[in-house]
Write a structure and sequence with these properties.
This protein is an all-alpha fold. It is built from five helices and no strands.
Amino acid sequence: PGSPRALDAAFLLGRLEEERERGLPKALAWYEEYLANAPTGTFAAEALGRRMIATKTLTGESAARPMAEQYLRRFPGGTYAGAAQALLRAP
């Protein structure tokens, strides 16, 4: 626990949960765990982007907007930048 490999495993467990039927809440929890313990880790950009998308799906756009803002501040050219911008433009 607490090692870089354990942190990577938390992210990867989130990815696995995302693939399972009704696994999105658990995936979200794993992404939050990863980001809390490795905010600048190898998978930080992807974990934050996936957290944003999962939050949008589970609880709506308004809950995901702060994550979109954070994503664009931290990773303006990242993989999820387009999704974050679209989320912020949505009414």
